[in-house]
Design a protein that fits this description.
This protein is mainly alpha-helical. The protein is 77% helix and 0% strand. α1 crosses α2 and α8 runs antiparallel to α9. 4% of the residues are buried. The mean pLDDT is 88.
């Protein structure tokens, strides 16, 4: 469920960045079929990666070929040059991930935080706190979804009354 939510969020972000629309139902079905097939072959389930997708779009990738080439390059690295990749220090990989996080974060959202509804800000801050405190993205997503549902129910209750 977390992977599916991440894929839908990634698709929405990529749609916004490229001013296009994607078929979210097709994405869900494709991911489901691929994950089931992967499980039967002894593989591990996967989902869209926000960092890779954003870097791909910001680097000029606009078609399926860009995603395909990124996947093929990753496959080649893992299968054929994994011995060389093992030599890369973990600190260097951490630095790359930190730069990806800095590059993909929308810094204007912090400057404009007062323009967003209080409920959205609470969900965002609590989700981040839960993820950082538990080191578990699934818990953060669960808390964020539950809080969003509670705020939505409260808003609907006010309109219905």
């Amino acid at each position: 469920a977390v992977g599916l939510l991440e894929s839908m969020m990634t698709a929405t972000i990529v749609d916004d960045l490229t001013d296009t629309t994607s078929d979210k139902n097709r994405e869900c079905k494709g991911q489901g079929v691929a994950n089931v097939a992967s499980g039967f072959l002894g593989g591990m389930a996967g989902c869209a990666m926000i960092g890779q997708s954003i870097i791909n779009v910001k680097s000029g990738g606009r078609t399926r070929l860009s995603s395909f080439s990124a996947g093929v390059f990753l496959l080649i690295m893992v299968v054929f040059i994994s011995d060389w990749l093992k030599v890369i220090p973990m600190a260097a990989l951490v630095a790359v991930m930190i730069m990806v996080a800095i590059g993909t974060f929308n810094w204007d959202s912090l400057r404009n935080i007062r323009q967003y509804p209080l409920s959205s800000n609470i969900v965002m801050i609590v989700t981040v706190i839960v993820v950082v405190a538990t080191h578990n993205l699934a818990y953060g997503v669960l808390v964020g979804v539950l809080l969003s549902a509670l705020f939505f129910a409260n808003k609907i209750e006010r309109y219905m009354a």
